[in-house]
Design goal:
The complex is a heterodimer of chains A (75) and B (727). Chain A has a single domain (6-74), classed as Roll (SH3 type barrels), CATH 2.30.30.90. Chain A is 17% helix and 37% strand. Chain A is built from 2 helices and 6 strands, in the order ββαβββαβ. Chain A has a 6-stranded antiparallel beta sheet with strand order 1-6-2-3-4-5. Chain A starts with 5 loop residues before the first strand and ends with a strand. With 727 residues, chain B is α/β, with parallel strands linked by helices. Among the domains of chain B are: 3-164, P-loop containing nucleotide triphosphate hydrolases (Rossmann fold), CATH 3.40.50; 179-255, Helix Hairpins, CATH 1.10.287.1770; 511-550 and 585-723, no CATH class. Chain B has a 7-stranded mixed beta sheet with strand order 2-3-4-1-5-6-8, sandwiched between helices. Chain B has a two-stranded antiparallel sheet with strand order 7-9. In chain B, β2 (29-33) and β3 form a beta hairpin. Chain B is elongated, with a radius of gyration of 32 Å. The chains are: A alpha+beta (75), B alpha/beta (727). The A-B interface holds A 24, 26-36, 38-41, 44, 46-47, 50-52, 54, 56-68, 71 and B 62-63, 65-67, 93-97, 100-101, 213-214, 216, 255-256, 259-260, 263, 280, 282, 285-286, 289-290, 293-295, 298, 384-385, 388-389, 391-392, 395, 401, 494-499, 501. β5 of chain A pairs antiparallel with β10 of chain B, so a sheet runs across the interface.
């Protein structure tokens, strides 16, 4: 299922999405995986753009700064 | 005979690890740095039944795969020092994610105990955890704890010693990665085992797994060994083959597969041992965040809290500062009485040591109060949000969101400001922030501004002061951009952070937090300052008995005999003697090494419009900015500059060059303020930069470039001012 992805930054607050891919370097990807953002995980956007994005993933709230939300593709 | 064991505390950030560490070790802890790196190392010890337990607090990490220094430090300690037990502190209300790190410890095969912390919070949010089942499925003892209520510590310690002694289950469960992956792991492990050096240090299967995961540290290690051993290249070749093969089968990076398997394992356990609440309600924290992180309200709220913090700090510190000053006077008088009146020793002790060091100790109340407020903001969880709120703005300057708090702190004192840079993960952002921090005009420079503004800008005082601060901030921004472009190039670290739920900070936690930082200021800064003060005292007081232009002693005797023979009144004699002593002190200062130094410096500072006395005054500022006003006071023979503030102000207004021109004009005064703002931070701050960068390059560069910049900008201000006719 390759079509229909969008960046997390375009998701509205309150919506639940599934993480598909992270367009980031190896190190950052690794860090995001270990913080709970792994492919296939369900996330809920608590606070949307503009400004920092806050998502609820695996019982934890993560804040994503400048530009980060653009790199995370969800469906 | 007590048995000694060493345990390591590990866990995610925000899992309550620090609280448990404090519970276990209490006062018996020691903070330092891990060797060679600027990661903080905390060690402590305790006695439990028949055991002497050494506790090493590892940095909080989300995994053992290397992303930053923290993971390297944590991992190296476990692999190389081989603690008897690793205690994984797991946040019960966030179990799924926390277990990710746990799986990595299981992969390493260490002896593990899990502390299921914050178990009360998990219950409140409706999570029910079957501890027995969890323990069974993980093959590891699981002990429920509530760190901030100090509950569960004894049970935890019991489990630890049981595991250390082998009395408990030793992690027989291992993760399954699936046939294909296991096959490649086996192949690599076989090759690794053939290499003695590697096999001795690391478990072969773990190393194989890390290689497939793409862990950079591990690959570097093997590459490093490759020329030395023939197997190194063989291993790397096999790695390439295996990765290629797996990528082909799964159509995905190997790391992604491994991560997927780990979470799959965790999920399986979670489903069987934990029951979730029916609905995810919006928590109180979320509601607060919707206000605090709101685009319009976020920054004003932040600025308000910062203002509140400073007001609180400066207001409350006035009284203790008064105590310190009184205590300093008393101590000075008492110690002084032990020595011969007027002797060098008395002067050294009273003026040099107690006076000099005392002027810095006066800042201790401010420092500790500032740290107190910071600790409250951090422990409550607000600081995490603040960093985010300022992120966008900092990004535009080329700095990181996390750089903002250290900069704000720098306005109070550069020392906690520089120390706060620890939270900045990426070296280049961190170093840049440390290097520009001194431009945030610290509190100690205020007396200099106050004196000069009082004397030369009586009406426009507020504006002038404001312009100085703005200039400092502007310089910080400009230099930050320059440093990031040429010295430490590279993209800014991406900002992703966990937002822990807000919570009430505990008094104990806040005090420990505050003390940790404050004590460092006292220790390191104190030793450097003590040495510096003695040096300045020496330079300013020797030669002890120079050739005076008048015979002061004889003149004083004359005055006293005049009183005795009724020629003058007592008040007149007192005044004469006071004037003579002031003159003598002033001459002594002029003829001292410091005075001579001033004459030598004069050509350098003259282009800036300064005379030798200003040069000497500023020189004292290398030690601590507070000394500048005091030195000027002595030079202008006013005695204690603080209570003689009006006279000093008048003196500098009246002072003239030999050719009759005024020494201080408004332009000169402003230039002096600019110089004070920009030049090298105090010795204590330099000492802290050394500590935070672990080398002398940083502090020397900081001292050098700030002073050079101060000179250049002052030159432009003064000469430019003269050109357009302001001087």
């Amino acid at each position: 299922m390759k079509g229909g992805f969008m960046p997390l930054s375009m998701v509205n607050p309150g919506e639940e999405v599934t993480l598909m891919a992270i367009h980031a370097g190896y190190g950052l990807q690794s860090r995001l995986f270990s913080m709970g953002l792994s492919p296939g995980v369900k996330m809920k956007v608590v606070k949307g753009a503009p400004g920092p994005l806050v998502v609820l993933v695996r019982d934890t709230r993560l804040a994503l700064g400048c530009g980060m939300a653009h790199k995370i593709m969800v469906s | 005979m007590a048995q000694r064991i060493t345990i390591a505390l590990a866990g995610n950030p925000n899992s309550g690890k620090t609280t448990i560490f404090n519970n276990l070790t209490g006062a018996r802890q020691h903070v330092g740095n891990w060797p060679g790196v600027t990661v903080e190392k905390k060690e402590g010890s305790l006695r439990f039944k028949d055991y002497e337990i050494k506790v090493v607090d590892l940095p909080g990490t989300y995994s053992l795969t290397v992303y930053s220094l923290d993971e390297v430090v944590a991992r190296n300690f476990v692999v190389e020092e081989r603690p008897d037990v690793v205690v994984d502190i797991v946040d019960a209300s966030n179990l799924e994610r926390n277990l990710y790190l746990t799986t990595q410890f299981m992969e390493l095969g260490v002896r593990l105990v899990i502390a299921l912390n914050m178990s009360d919070r998990a219950e409140e949010s409706g999570h029910k955890i079957d501890i027995k089942k969890l323990s069974e499925l993980l093959g590891v003892p699981v002990i429920p704890t509530i760190g901030y209520k100090n509950r569960g510590m004894d049970e935890l310690l019991q489990a630890i010693v049981d595991v250390a002694d082998g009395r408990s289950m030793a992690g027989k469960i291992s993760l399954e990665y699936g046939e294909e992956l296991e096959e490649e792991i086996r192949k690599l492990a076989q090759l690794i085992e053939k290499n003695e050096a590697l096999a001795r240090r690391y478990p072969a299967k773990w190393l194989a797994l890390k290689l497939l995961e793409g862990d950079e540290e591990v690959i570097k290690t093997i590459k490093g060994e490759a020329p030395a051993i023939t197997d190194g290249q063989v291993i790397l070749d096999q790695l390439r083959k295996s990765s290629g093969h797996l990528k082909g089968i799964f159509d995905d990076e190997v790391e992604t597969i491994i991560v997927d398997r780990r979470y799959g394992f965790i999920n399986g356990i979670y489903k069987r041992a934990v029951s979730r609440p029916a609905i995810e309600r919006l928590s109180a924290s979320d509601k607060i965040d919707s206000i605090v992180l709101n685009r319009a309200l976020g920054i004003p709220i932040f600025l308000f809290l910062m203002w509140l913090m400073f007001k609180f700090t400066f207001t409350l510190s006035e009284v203790p500062m008064g105590w310190v000053e009184t205590g300093q006077e008393w101590l000075g008088d008492m110690c002084g009485s032990f020595f011969l009146e007027g002797s060098a020793f008395q002067s050294l002790v009273v003026e040099g040591i107690i006076g000099g060091v005392g002027s810095v100790i006066t800042f201790v109340p401010i420092i500790f109060l500032l740290f107190f407020c910071m600790a409250i903001l951090e422990d409550s969880g607000y600081m995490a949000r603040a960093a985010f709120v300022m992120d966008r703005f900092m990004h535009k300057i080329g700095l990181h969101g996390r750089s903002f708090i250290p900069m704000i702190l720098g306005l109070g004192c550069n020392i906690p400001g520089i120390m706060a840079c620890r939270t900045i993960e990426q070296e280049r952002d961190r170093l840049t922030t440390i290097l520009v921090n001194p431009f945030m005009s610290c509190g100690a420079r205020l007396p200099v501004y106050a004196l000069l503004i009082g004397a030369f800008f009586p009406e426009k005082g507020g504006t002038v002061l404001y312009s100085i601060y703005i200039l400092g901030i502007a310089m910080a921004i400009i230099m930050a951009k320059i440093f990031r472009k040429y010295l430490f190039p590279g993209p800014t670290a991406p900002f992703v952070m966990e937002l822990p739920p807000y919570r009430m900070p505990t008094f104990k936690g806040v005090i420990i937090h505050m003390w940790e930082r404050g004590v460092l200021y006292l220790k390191k800064a104190g030793t450097v300052i003590l040495a510096g003060c003695v040096l300045v005292w020496f330079l300013g007081n020797f030669p002890w008995n120079p050739e005076y232009s008048k015979d002061y002693d004889r003149l004083k005797q004359e005055a006293m005999s005049d009183l005795a023979s009724g020629l003058i009144m007592k008040e007149a004699m007192d005044e004469t003697i006071a004037n003579l002593e002031n003159e003598q002190a002033r001459e002594k200062m002029e003829k001292s090494y410091l005075g001579r130094l001033g004459r030598i410096i004069e050509p350098v500072v003259k282009p800036l419009g300064f005379d030798w006395k200003i040069g000497v005054g500023l020189f004292g500022g290398f030690i601590a900015k507070e000394i500048v006003v005091g030195t000027l006071g002595t030079l202008y023979a006013v005695g204690e500059a603080d209570d003689g503030a009006a006279p000093l102000r008048e003196q500098i207004q009246k002072d003239r060059w030999p050719n009759g021109k005024k020494v201080f004009t408004p332009l000169v005064a402003f230039t002096m303020m600019v110089f004070t703002l920009l030049y090298m931070p105090c010795v204590a701050a330099i000492g802290v930069i050394y500590r935070e960068t672990n080398s002398w390059k940083g502090p020397l560069f900081a001292a050098g470039y700030t002073t050079a910049l101060a000179w250049i900008v002052s030159f432009i201000v003064y000469q430019g001012g003269k050109l357009i006719g302001l001087g």
